[in-house]
Amino acid sequence: MTTASHPGLRARLATPARTVWAKHDRGTDGWLPLWRHMEDSAAVAGLLWDTWLPANVRALISSGLPEGERDGRRLAVWLAGVHDIGKATPAFACQVDQLADCMRDAGLEMRSAKALGPDRRLAPHGLAGQALLGEWLRERHGWAGKQVGQLTVVIGGHHGVPPEPGQIAVLQRHGHLLRSPGPSRDAWQRVQGELLDACAEEYRVQDRLDAWRDVRLPQTAQVLLTSLVIVADWIASNADLFPYFPQDAARSGEERVAAAWRGLDLPRPWAPEEPTEDAQQLIGSRFGLPEGAKARPVQEAAVELARSMDGPGLMVIEAPMGEGKTEAALAVAEIFAALSGAGGVFFALPTMATGNAMFPRLLDWIDRLPSTRGAQHSVLLAHSKAALNEHFADLMRDSAQQIVAVDLDAPKTPHAASAELVAHAWLRGRKKAMLASFVAGTIDQLLFAGLKSRHLAMRHLAVAGKVVVIDEAHAYDTYMSVYLDRVLAWLGAYGVPVVVLSATLPSRRRRELVEAYAGAAARDEAFEAVAGATAYPLLTAVRHGGSPVMRNPGASGRGTDVVLEPFDDDMDALVERLAHELAGGGCALVVRNTVKRVLETAKALRARFGDENVTVAHSCFVDVDRAVKDADLLKRFGPPGTARGRPPGPHIVVASQVAEQSLDVDFDLLVSDLCPVDLLLQRMGRLHRHQRGVDQRDRPERLRRARCLVTGADWDPEVPVPVRGSVAVYGAYALLRSAAALLPHLVQGEARAVRLPDDISPLVQAAYAADTDAPAGWADALTAARERYEDHRADQSDRASVFRLGKVGAPGKPLFGWVAAGVGDTDDTPAGRAQVRDSRENLEVVVVQRKGAGTLTTLPWLAPDRFGKALGGLELPRDQVPTRQAARAAASCGLRLPMQFSYADVMERAITELEELYVPAWQMKDSHWLSGQLILALDENCQTHLAGFSLSYSESDGLEVTRD
Questions:
Q1: 114: CB partners within 8 A, 6+ apart
Q2: Helix ranges, 617-721 (H)
Q3: Are 669 and 586 in contact (CB under 8 A)?
Q4: For residues 154 and 225, is the Cβ–Cβ distance under 8 A?
Q5: Which of 107, 273, 805, 903 has the maximum number of C-beta atoms within 10 A of its C-beta?
Q6: C-alpha distances in angstroms, 653 versus 464, 861, 953?
Q7: Where are the alpha helices (DSSP H) in 495-524?
Q8: How many whole angstroms from its chain centre is CA 945?
């Protein structure tokens, strides 16, 4: 920027420094001098600070600096300005001959890239810049060697990986890569010092460096400064926004930056004021409750607890299914955001399906917020299939934007009066997308913040500026919890507000979550009380470094008594029992623990009840069929008043674990395989979920009392024997502990029904407590199962720890080696998800149909889109890119193959066979729907063979796999 007091960098530099280059386009031969890229980057960093960074991020960066946010802004702008100083070295400058020759003509001698050879790689420009800035701070400003690293690591890590100590040591032994030896060495040193001096003067840090010398910058601030510099560099490196010379040499720096910033048009962060309404009014207005409806006690208590806290922290909300935990979390998020300065919300869910279900609810809530009216905010659905979601696809289409510098005289489009939600074009891609203000997505996106990987700082920036909501906290196993607990520790250090939701959280896990966020220094007797709390519903809150507080708000008064009955794992007996129970009509839900058992059960039931009276739901459907299944279940079996076409019965839905989470469906009778007690309670939440008439009189007479048949085990022996498939999924120990906790209810039946919600917490704690007495005769079996379980947990923890991010270091300790021995790049792919989940890498395919003549088409039964355009049976030509409509329809038929295909030898064979159907025309840049996808072609009977297995697929039953 050029003003009277700030003449700009160029005016401060002699000719040799002006010749140093930073960017070059081999296609056009355009280039950019280093001084210009420094100015661009610094200006962008200042604009990001002023208009884009949430207030809490600015405050955290500035917290340890003498003049607070004034110093914070100066430091951020200056570091962005000097981030590429490492390009003023022979190791970098030698790469483009004609630009290197200009520098040689100015006295900056250097060997050619060929002459420098592979040694040049020892001085990547980030590491070189770190070394040069450190030397400058020591020699020009008297900083101690131990002090410089906390700032210079920002320069060294601006390409995603902070340098490791070993790399720094090696570079020190290769000084010729930083300055050519001989007569021009002094010239190199003068140019490097001149550029650094100019930046210090231009960005007003020359007189602040002495004051900063004794600062101990928290590692959290180092991470956020690194990520801010990365964002500024990415924007300033976009040639559409900041054109290269000679094309753009005539414009002033101010004009160049203003045009670029207007073309980028980044939405500002959310900045809510603390709501003034009482809890009843707040819940009613934000969620459109009908007149006369009241907030539930849990919601009211959560709002009051959030307001009573000294500042934002962690809140764990434990309450029964259907008590409005989601609404409570969002109401708390609004309060926490106002208190903390957070600029958005990330709602983390266990699966893509639950993420899809949450996304429209999040959009509705945003639209009702007073703080979003008349403002533009960025939103994101964060999982690998998000582009196929209609709600998000609409936003992407409506937000179509070309990222290019805009003439300052061009008219600006005004924003709408209501909230304008955009899927911003620049905030897309695996490294930038999570920077959107409002995000719903899978828990993987949060767990990645605990995985040592490239550009980890960007993931931390994405969550540091938000309120984080973690749903279904009971659903994450030991492996995932290792990452989650470390992420919570960092979120606590950042001061990020977090809301954790669960209906069935073991008390031990509650304590682990609270302790992880609070930090080890805060441990006291109060945490013992957290582990020992038995009240339900229960709210637990804690601030980082503080002691927890708990509230017991009571349930809403709605309750259900569920009679449990052990039932033999006999298919014929199950068919007869269901025929008896449903003789007068009604709808039953049968939940099996494996897809194989789902399909076997459905086959037997259809033989008795007919195809039209049995519905199948499980995870092995193509994406679009799975979405249709979920919508159909909600439409037919959802709440009274919203559901349409509920069958009078008899009708049976046979489902896998997909019925446990986030589906508001209601059945008259439940049959479930034995499973961990918290999951069984989730399944029971689908039984008599809603009131149907006074005393359930709108249900068939036999089914007016809620009943759950627990099968999937041999109940005759003294110790129950779960079926093999269930043991493979959950382990014998969890199943036996579940059976032990449920035993009084199973034995006494109607005399001791499970009372929901009253019995939820006692059952969960009984199943997961370490000191629960075993039933008579069970001790040996439980001991043996527990030994295997503990070995498995230890193995999970050890394996997860390999790539887990380290603890937050002491203030002032540089981030050197922060992601050393990490996994490299990671993203929301099967391989990426496998790094934060204890699962083998899944094989994902796109399913199409091959006609008799060899023609490929989309699956024939796909329904038309909402505009009436046909999607089924569309041709997919192999000699050209398919139409967008056909390609998108094909991509919507993605399928994750089951576990049989995750073993290394089977997967390798399957990939080899699938790659035989490689279509070069589909790999083009304009074929993003199908490029890089493995294609599984079914024959005209929807069957095929793959890696020694027979595969059969149907719209009604999904994928069935048998060994050849």
A1: none
A2: 623-637, 677-684
A3: yes
A4: yes
A5: 805
A6: 43, 21, 19
A7: 507-518
A8: 35
